[in-house]
């Protein structure tokens, strides 16, 4: 074997020393993650109460998680497998960091929540740091469907899902309207895009003020048709209405629809953006061929343009469904579940039972969260299956 070949073979050999050092460091860091306790950090930092040391403990553990990742990379990059397949392994190394945190912050808490749903727990630990919960099996799930607030929340989620789907066709209609090359069209696009940029909390506050029956935008519009200014007995001008303006958020029969309308505003903007992007990728050759075949108007839209917007439609439907099922911030901002629990949805009711007015029912709140997760999982599984089938047809 030539000198060059021998040198090449040595370059692709596993670095045993680096692997040993990395393995030792990995063991040390993993041991540190599991051995660090809140009480120890509290004593080290001289805190009076252990609860004050929870955030520092979390940060220390995250530091050792990162160090464990570095040690893992050190081991892997010293192996012959990596040295011979650097290009193929590089993407997985970048993904591994995100996947690790996804595992720690998403996957593990999901299973923790499911396990808590089989317990009765107030969310607290005793003075020695021991868990104070009690295993109750399916008791929380049996309570769910006897709970009128849970049934109301479930019905409201179905209502959110049904009405939220209006964002898809409305977003498509606005995108078709804005997909023109006229002077100032970018300005109008930015106006329609604006609701998606601002916070959901801000959107909730805007609509809360607009719905106010005393000074809101709805009240002002109502005054044009049903109210007039009259002079009272002391000579001041007073607004008198033949029909009082409705209290959208104060009446159970209107409140949920008012919140959904507020949520639709930014969701329509998001669907519009997706369709505007899709319209930029529509094939002009197919449009021209459709015109030659006599297609125009509705036929052109239905048979030529919409089929090419299928990827954008798929994403719009998926995001809209998930957004409707996980609706929380609008309810929290506008009604806090009222009046009389009529606007509760599963996400907000879960929060309310765990840390809100029903504080101390972590097990019951986890059961609600598990039901919501199961519903979302069904929808997401269907969408992923459809995506997989479409990919099979393409390839």
Q: Could you characterize what this model shows?
A:
It is a single chain. The chain is mainly alpha-helical. Among the domains are: 82 residues; 153 residues, MetI-like fold, CATH 1.10.3720. The protein is built from 19 helices and four strands. Strand 3 and strand 4 form a beta hairpin. Helix 13 runs antiparallel to helix 16. The mean pLDDT is 85.
Brief digest:
It contains 19 helices and four strands. By secondary structure, it is mainly alpha-helical. Helix 2 runs antiparallel to helix 4 (54-76) and helix 8 (148-164) packs parallel to helix 13 (252-280).
What is the CATH topology descriptor of the domain at 147-200 and 262-360? MetI-like fold
Question: Alpha-carbon distance between the termini?
Answer: 45 Å
Shape estimate: extended
Radius of gyration: 29 Å
Structural class: mainly alpha
Strand order of the largest sheet: 1-2
Task: Quote the average pLDDT.
Answer: 85
Mind describing the biggest β-sheet? 2 strands, antiparallel
* CATH-scheme architecture of the domain at 147-200 and 262-360: Orthogonal Bundle
Order of helices and strands: HHHHHHEEHHHHHHEEHHHHHHH
By DSSP, the count of extended strands is 4
Number of helices: 19
Runs in which pLDDT lies below 50 for 5 or more consecutive residues are none
CATH superfamily of the domain at 147-200 and 262-360: MetI-like
Identify the CATH class of the domain at 147-200 and 262-360. Answer: Mainly Alpha
Quote the beta fraction: under 5%
Helix content: over 70%
